[in-house]
Amino acid sequence: MTPRTHSQGFGMTSLRTRERLLQRLYDQGIRDEKVLTQIATVPRHKFMDEALASRAYEDTALPIGHGQTISQPYVVAKMTEAILRDGPLEKVLEIGTGCGYQTAILAGLVRQVYSIERHLPLNTMARRHIRNLRIHNTSLLHGDGWKGWPARAPFDAIIVTAAPETLPEVLLEQLEIGGRLVVPVGPSGRQDLLLITRTEEEFVTENLGAVSFVPMLHGKR
Ligand code: SAH
Hints:
Layout (H helix, E strand, L loop, with lengths): L2 H25 L5 H9 L20 E4 L2 E3 L2 H11 L5 E7 L5 H7 L2 E8 L2 H13 L5 E5 L12 E6 L8 H5 L1 E11 L5 E8 L4 E9 L10
Parallel strand pairs: 3-4, 3-6, 4-5, 6-7
Antiparallel strand pairs: 1-2, 7-8, 8-9
S-adenosyl-L-homocysteine binds next to β2, α4 and β4.
């Protein structure tokens, strides 16, 4: 098979498998049209190794090197839908850029995305992916998400894509009034996905169900 036919063949496969993925997300309860459209539009296969690209539209987390993963599309969709519940947002902070997939999903839905990654090679990789897709409304920082991004706070929403064992209080402080924090909290292997809304008087917590994320570690490297 020549490389040309191979890439055309892959294009068709990916169109069919993308449709299948959308159907699956819908069946699992994702209803926000804008989120579904964004999942259909962002080429997930461009965020991973070519060797794994044929599996890019499976609804599963996949390895991206450095012991990390690209998040499962369902979880990306669910977290994104949760913060967009009351309509469009201006400023969103993500903790755990990884390869930049969730960052790219958010970039098409909000005005500006800020994203922090502790691991320098992944920060560099994400910059490359975002640049290749000509996305211009993201700011990527190599740093420790436990500190949040005080210079850019407050945020309308914060998405944490690595799991802390306890809630990072600093992130609550960096939320706008009415803002939302979505974060998987708990020990390795099984966490509860919490949606925390900041009101004038208090923080209101909702449990969105069990999830499994890589741990949120301390410090940058
Ligand atoms: N958002 C990514 C998921 C990446 S996996 C996606 O869309 O696929 C989680 C990422 O969180 C890993 O890259 C890991 O290095 C990073 N991470 C873990 N602890 C962190 C911390 N304290 N600050 C910033 N990033 C962290």
